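Hey L., structure's done. Input below.
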Amino acid sequence: MNGLSTLLIFVGLFLLGGAISFWKQELPRGVVVLLGLGAAMALGAGVLRLGVWS
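Output:
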């Protein structure tokens, strides 16, 4: 695991936590969806950079 994949996974988890927190605070749905999409992309990029598929 290199530094960039670790950073991307960390950022993804951070954004996911923010999305959950905003959902509980009943903030606008667009903000929650945007954070969720950002979290999914960051987590996906981090996992794909691990290179466990090859």
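The two ends are 14 Å apart (CA to CA). The first helix runs from residue 3 to 24.

-- N.
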